[in-house]
């Protein structure tokens, strides 16, 4: 006879019928799926709450209920009457910035998850390929050339192009005979990042103080003044790239076991590497082009969510995206309000949180930095 257990732990015995075994399998699968799904729903709820709180809090504090009402009415296109002052502050001033922070946080966290899966290393982040540095160099070059005076969209465009060009250079340096060595890719990313940083530092010496201030503010990560146009340009690229990375979840899961095993299971390893790198560059470039360099979001959030939800990228990628959006929205809220009326740059807040976390991870993985 089979052992008697609680309903959630009932295990079919040797004399179980096929129907009982099938029912047990269905219950087990449901439990496996329920926990990640529940966590994702909780993260979605936290994100919605963060949007309302960040939109309501500012120089003029607005009621949370009225803020949520304005957001819902305008989003759903309802014909309900709204208080004009609240509507203007929320919809035209604050909400675009909050949503821009959410989209950028989503992008960086999803890319960090993909990079950590590809490199099998929790210290990997979206800028590991030098994409952020390349985007920064493109933007700085545009600022030095005076493009903001010609068209405000030229600098984001230059940043996006710089990010993609950097990816092409890094990939070409690391690829031989159609195969990309991950260690060489990492070293190439570090080298290109260092070169971009050196060029940016060189340009500091040939610009006026006003231009230099623009460059420094941009490099710190700047969400100030973001409008609906920024969200509209960035969101489709982030959505398309993130969806592409999610569709590669199975391949990333198999690559975690090693390239040889993944290849034996039918994964086109080199094709997967190319797609992951290209999509990461697309998404990171879109984020960097709008907000500048905001670090550590793609390092902190994926690592924390992996501890909660597990290593399955089918769940980890969307969970990290939601967590990253919430994290950056709250970081931007802190940047706006911590020393009001002085406003910090969002990248400063994420760095203050990220550097100690990075050192903690490094201490936990001391063997990574030992000489072989």
Please explain how this structure is put together.
With 372 residues, this protein is mostly helical. Helices cover 74% and strands 1% of the residues. It has helices spanning 18-56, 64-76, 84-119, 131-144, 147-150, 154-174, 182-204, 209-219, 228-247, 249-255, 259-264, 269-291, 297-309, 313-337, 346-364, and strands at 175-176, 179-180. It has a two-stranded antiparallel sheet. Strand 1 and strand 2 (179-180) form a beta hairpin. Helix 1 crosses helix 3, helix 3 packs across helix 14 and helix 4 (131-144) packs antiparallel against helix 8 (209-219). It is globular. The model is unreliable at 1-11, 19-24 and 367-372 (pLDDT under 50).
Q: From the helix content, strand content and strand pairing, which structural class follows? A: mainly alpha
CATH secondary-structure class? Mainly Alpha
Low-confidence stretches: 1-11, 19-24, 367-372
How does the major sheet shape up? 2 strands, antiparallel
DSSP, total strands? 2
Q: What is the radius of gyration computed over CA atoms, rounded to a whole number of angstroms?
A: 23 Å
- Report the CATH topology name: ABC transporter involved in vitamin B12 uptake, BtuC
Order of helices and strands: HHHHHHEEHHHHHHHHH
Give the rounded overall mean pLDDT. Answer: 85
Strand portion: under 5%
Provide keyphrases for this structure.
372 residues; mainly alpha; ABC transporter involved in vitamin B12 uptake, BtuC; disordered N terminus
């Amino acid at each position: 006879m089979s052992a008697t257990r609680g309903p959630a732990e009932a295990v079919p015995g040797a004399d179980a019928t096929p129907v009982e075994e099938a029912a047990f399998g269905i219950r087990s699968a449901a439990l496996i799926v329920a926990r990640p799904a529940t966590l994702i729903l909780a993260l979605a709820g936290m994100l919605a709450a963060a949007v309302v709180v960040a939109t309501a809090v500012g120089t003029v504090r607005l009621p949370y209920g009225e803020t949520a009402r304005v957001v819902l009415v305008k989003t759903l296109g309802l014909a309900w009457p709204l208080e004009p002052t609240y509507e203007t502050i929320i919809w035209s001033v604050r909400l675009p910035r909050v949503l821009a922070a959410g989209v950028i946080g989503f992008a960086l966290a999803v890319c960090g998850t993909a990079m950590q899966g590809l490199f099998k290393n929790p210290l990997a982040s979206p800028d590991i390929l030098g994409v952020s540095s390349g985007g920064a160099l493109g933007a700085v070059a545009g600022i030095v050339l005076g493009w903001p005076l010609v068209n405000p969209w030229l600098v984001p465009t230059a940043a996006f192009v710089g990010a993609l060009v950097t990816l092409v250079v890094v990939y070409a340096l690391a690829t031989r005979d159609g195969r990309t060595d991950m260690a060489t890719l990492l070293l190439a990313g570090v080298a290109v990042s260092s070169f971009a940083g050196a060029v940016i530092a060189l340009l500091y010496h040939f610009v006026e103080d006003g231009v230099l201030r623009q460059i420094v503010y941009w490099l710190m990560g700047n969400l100030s003044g973001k409008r609906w146009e920024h969200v509209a340009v960035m969101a489709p690229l982030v959505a398309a790239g993130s969806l592409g990375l999610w569709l590669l979840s199975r391949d990333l899961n198999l690559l975690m076991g090693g390239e040889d095993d993944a290849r034996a299971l039918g994964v086109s390893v080199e094709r997967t590497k190319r797609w992951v790198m290209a999509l990461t560059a697309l998404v990171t470039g879109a984020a960097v082009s709008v907000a500048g360099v905001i670090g550590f979001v793609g390092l902190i959030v994926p690592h924390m969510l992996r501890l909660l939800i597990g290593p399955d990228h089918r769940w980890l990628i969307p969970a990290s995206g939601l967590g990253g959006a919430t994290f950056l929205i709250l970081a931007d809220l802190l940047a706006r309000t911590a020393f009001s009326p002085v406003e910090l740059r969002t990248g400063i807040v994420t760095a203050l949180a990220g550097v100690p976390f990075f050192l903690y991870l490094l201490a936990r993985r001391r063997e990574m930095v030992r000489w072989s």
